Amino acid sequence: MAMSTKLSSFRLPPLPTIGEIIKLYNLRAEKQLSQNFLLDMRLTDKIVRQAGSLRNAHVCEVGPGPGGLTRSILNAGAADLLVVEKDTRFIPGLKLLSEAAPGRVRIVHGDILTYRMDQGFPSHIAKTWVDGPPDLHVIGNLPFSVSTPLIIKWLESMANRSGPFVFGRTRLTLTFQKEVAERLTASTGSRQRSRLSIMAQYLCTVKNCFTIPGRAFVPKPDVDVGVVHFTPLARPQIQQPFKLVEKLVRNVFQFRRKRCCRGIEMLFPATGRLEMTEELLCRADVDPTLRPAELTIPHFRALADAYSQLCAENQGLIAYDFREELKEKRRGRRHHGGGEVPQHRGL
Ligand code: SAM
């Protein structure tokens, strides 16, 4: 009995529906800002359930808009909900919600790409990295143009334990265009296996929870939407700096239909390129004929470790970018009137 009284105290009092809020505050979706709203509370409740128990939790909701998902988060029992919204038009509606849940909602008018989430929550909620995740969740239904750069930024923050991850292994529940959700979770050998699969999976357990058809949104986007849940791993599967891993993975996948050695070659200056590639593959014990999508995370770990060793042995290698070398060659050709191409200095 006491339990049910407690549960009901989390629930919001009767409020205008999200549809009514949109009309009341004249919140027409801005196509330029890719605003697509979720008005069906069964769907917003389902997204929120993917995060796990929110009872008494701290939550950051990114892009609350008219507040559908926000209501579900509050109804799930979040004690401290920080919402970060870029578009001022939504602030009055969010204030109404905050009055209905006294002391539980904090509103930030700002851009999540620059917002300092490390300063948004009290330090006492932090857990060490090897402990379980903290009682802090990040949840959001953002425009696709924001969610992809944001997850790339947050994967780097995860590796460096900054931003939302100064509090420990903070869990994320975010929406993406369906194809991006599939790439984030693609397994070895699958058609969707890409840079994003490796970068996400070496750092986290990633789960593609479910797909929301485009028609569930108002207005309807041209694509379907995937809900993805991320839990940072206590020990990342690759123990090298994020930038090094990112460079390796970017190079490997630039020729995705070719053998993996083709992309790996581009990590090295033209002088000695083939020998260095052979040396790297040999040290990592990776079959050069495998296609990029066939490489497992342990393959990437071995490649990253071997590449890091080679960088330690060859000054300047980590900074080498084949595109710069190409530019230099082109400049040389122009300077010499199409004659001999100047030799690269090597490492
Ligand atoms: N969460 C609401 C829902 O599910 O109905 C709104 C979703 S709408 C796709 C995305 C929301 O994110 C909009 O309210 C938009 O103004 C907001 N937004 C877009 N870019 C943002 C950014 N960089 N920082 C914070 N909010 C942003």
UniProtKB/TrEMBL annotation:
<keyword id="KW-0238">DNA-binding</keyword>
<dbReference type="Pfam" id="PF00398">
    <property type="entry name" value="RrnaAD"/>
</dbReference>
<dbReference type="InterPro" id="IPR001737">
    <property type="entry name" value="KsgA/Erm"/>
</dbReference>
<keyword id="KW-0809">Transit peptide</keyword>
<dbReference type="GO" id="GO:0034246">
    <property type="term" value="F:mitochondrial transcription factor activity"/>
</dbReference>
<feature type="binding site">
    <location>
        <position position="63"/>
    </location>
    <ligand>
        <name>S-adenosyl-L-methionine</name>
    </ligand>
</feature>
<comment type="similarity">
    <text>Belongs to the class I-like SAM-binding methyltransferase superfamily. rRNA adenine N(6)-methyltransferase family. KsgA subfamily.</text>
</comment>
<dbReference type="InterPro" id="IPR029063">
    <property type="entry name" value="SAM-dependent_MTases_sf"/>
</dbReference>
<feature type="binding site">
    <location>
        <position position="36"/>
    </location>
    <ligand>
        <name>S-adenosyl-L-methionine</name>
    </ligand>
</feature>
<feature type="binding site">
    <location>
        <position position="85"/>
    </location>
    <ligand>
        <name>S-adenosyl-L-methionine</name>
    </ligand>
</feature>
<dbReference type="GO" id="GO:0006391">
    <property type="term" value="P:transcription initiation at mitochondrial promoter"/>
</dbReference>
<keyword id="KW-0496">Mitochondrion</keyword>
<dbReference type="InterPro" id="IPR023165">
    <property type="entry name" value="rRNA_Ade_diMease-like_C"/>
</dbReference>
<feature type="binding site">
    <location>
        <position position="141"/>
    </location>
    <ligand>
        <name>S-adenosyl-L-methionine</name>
    </ligand>
</feature>
<dbReference type="GO" id="GO:1904047">
    <property type="term" value="F:S-adenosyl-L-methionine binding"/>
</dbReference>
<dbReference type="GO" id="GO:0003677">
    <property type="term" value="F:DNA binding"/>
</dbReference>
<dbReference type="GO" id="GO:0003723">
    <property type="term" value="F:RNA binding"/>
</dbReference>
<keyword id="KW-0808">Transferase</keyword>
<protein>
    <recommendedName>
        <fullName>rRNA adenine N(6)-methyltransferase</fullName>
        <ecNumber>2.1.1.-</ecNumber>
    </recommendedName>
</protein>
<keyword id="KW-0805">Transcription regulation</keyword>
<dbReference type="GO" id="GO:0005759">
    <property type="term" value="C:mitochondrial matrix"/>
</dbReference>
<keyword id="KW-0949">S-adenosyl-L-methionine</keyword>
<keyword id="KW-0694">RNA-binding</keyword>
<dbReference type="InterPro" id="IPR020598">
    <property type="entry name" value="rRNA_Ade_methylase_Trfase_N"/>
</dbReference>
<feature type="binding site">
    <location>
        <position position="38"/>
    </location>
    <ligand>
        <name>S-adenosyl-L-methionine</name>
    </ligand>
</feature>
<feature type="binding site">
    <location>
        <position position="111"/>
    </location>
    <ligand>
        <name>S-adenosyl-L-methionine</name>
    </ligand>
</feature>
<keyword id="KW-0804">Transcription</keyword>
<keyword id="KW-0698">rRNA processing</keyword>
<keyword id="KW-0489">Methyltransferase</keyword>
<feature type="domain" description="Ribosomal RNA adenine methylase transferase N-terminal">
    <location>
        <begin position="43"/>
        <end position="234"/>
    </location>
</feature>
<dbReference type="InterPro" id="IPR011530">
    <property type="entry name" value="rRNA_adenine_dimethylase"/>
</dbReference>
<dbReference type="GO" id="GO:0000179">
    <property type="term" value="F:rRNA (adenine-N6,N6-)-dimethyltransferase activity"/>
</dbReference>
